Amino acid sequence: MIAAAGNSGPKMTTVMLPACDPEVIAVGAVETNGELVIWENSSRGPTIQGETKPDFVLWGTNLEMASHKADDEYLVKSGTSFAAPMLSGLTGLLWESGRRAYGEGWQFRWAAAKQYAPYFSTKPQEAPLNKDNAYGYGLPAMGSMLGQVAQVSTPSSGTEMFPMIMLMSLMAGLMGGG
């Protein structure tokens, strides 16, 4: 399950239900101003139970969307509720790409992928390398992840290939600059 972390930051211990549950992937929001900066209102961990949250961050600020008032009007909004669907969409794309490459039995689970998250996520240099209570693991490298899943053709086992895919993605990013 993927859930928005909440908009109660910048204070610590503000990740909301259900995102504070250890089994839920909590998504925080980053600014869209060219730098990877946590949105001021994005909730931060740790949770009351001591879990480091959020798990990931995605863009969730200054997003233009259709207005509920008129068909030709637009609004600009911000929030972790806009970041969480992006991770959900990435999950669907990864799942479908993996199924096309490896067959119907291929499964993608963020819970299993979290151990490889430092290899396919990015954070500012000054942020801790490990998962932290502001950025989590960081911003997933979506293009690299999708490209690596789609390029691999015949694995021995779909679930065993996930670590190799993530490591290949890391190597491609380090060697090719993207």
Describe the structure.
- The structure is a single chain.
- The chain has one domain: Rossmann fold (3-Layer(aba) Sandwich), CATH 3.40.50.
- The chain is 34% helix and 14% strand.
- The protein contains five helices and seven strands.
- The longest helix has 23 residues.
Main attributes?
34% helix, 14% strand, globular, three-stranded parallel beta sheet, Rossmann fold, alpha/beta, two-stranded antiparallel ribbon
- The helix tally amounts to 5
Strand pairing plus helix content: what structural class?
A: alpha/beta
Indicate the radius of gyration in whole angstroms: 17 Å
Main β-sheet description:
3 strands, parallel
- Which runs of at least 5 residues are low in confidence (pLDDT < 50)? 152-178
Number of individual domains:
1
Q: List the helices and strands in order.
A: EEEEEHHHEEHH
With strands numbered from the N-terminus, the spatial order across the biggest sheet is 1-2-3
Question: What's the CATH superfamily, by name?
Answer: Peptidase S8/S53 domain
The CATH class, by name, is Alpha Beta
DSSP strand (E) fraction? 5-15%
Through-space gap between termini: 29 Å
Helical residue percent? 25-40%
Instruction: Provide the CATH architecture.
Output: 3-Layer(aba) Sandwich
CATH fold annotation: Rossmann fold
User: What characteristic shape results from the CA principal axes?
Assistant: globular
| Count of distinct strands | 7
